[in-house]
Amino acid sequence: MGWWTLAGALLGLGLERIVLALPAWVLAPYGDQVRAEDWQGPGGGLWLKHRPARWIALACLNTLIWAACALWSPPAAQGLTWAVLAWAVCGTGLLVLAAVDWNTTLLPDVLVWPLVWAGLLASERHWTAVPLAVSLWSAVLWYLVMQALPWVFERITGRSGMGAGDAKLLAAMAAWWGWQPTLWALLCGALLTLLVGLVWRRRGLAPWAHVPFGPFLVMGLACWTAVGWPV
pTM for the full model? Predict the structure, then answer.
């Protein structure tokens, strides 16, 4: 476990740089079409500078993720170095996505889609407790459902709902964890988003910022994984 913890800590030291640079790199091809106000999340938006508190928080969270993967990896993965590494990298990917989404409301395809395919590969290699067939149809089902719901919502209300990136993130979660934990993540994430949004608006904190869904999906999944709620 000690080596996994050390590796997580060393990788975590560089995560803030990735979190700050990734949105600008992803949006660079769009040039002048990018407006900062369109990518304004509670974390501050596109053009953020280094903050020691954020740097330490990301490093500590990543260290915890890697240590947890070494300790509590699924039974199928225990004792397998590649399996533990796969779960640890998955955790780091979700952490980066949550941080980027919190800052900018952006969930970059360059990270989300590899997580989906990695989840399918992990299932095929028996590094997860989810059979490959279940992993595949869970990812497809969640993606299609969560793409359809915002479309229906917009048709009825005339307002946009959940972004396409959230549907892809749910597909990635389903590929790794299966459809049941993903359902719990969705329910917990929706509740947390509602509560934070109400507090955010009531206190008048950055009213121009959008409250993203991705970080709360990740938090909901983390709670399910840590507590092991029955489904």
Answer: 0.89
pLDDT of res. 218: 95
105: which residues sit within 8 A by CB, 6+ positions away?
39, 40, 41, 163, 210, 212
Q: Domain range for residue 99?
A: 2-227
State the sign of the Cα–Cα–Cα–Cα dihedral 36, 42, 43, 49: positive
Contact between residue 107 and residue 117 where contact means Cβ atoms under 8 Å apart: no
Least Cα distance to 87 among 45, 79, 211, 104 occurs for 79
Number of CB atoms found within 10 A of residue 43's CB: 19
How many distinct structural domains can be found in the chain? 1
| Residue 158, helix vs strand vs coil | coil
DSSP 8-state assignment for residue 105 = S
Q: What tens digit of pLDDT does each residue of 50-87 get?
A: 899 999 999 999 999 999 988 876 555 545 688 889 99
Q: Which residues have C-beta within 8 Å of that of residue 26, sequence separation ≥ 6?
A: 106, 108, 110
Tell me the mean pLDDT in the region 90-117: 95
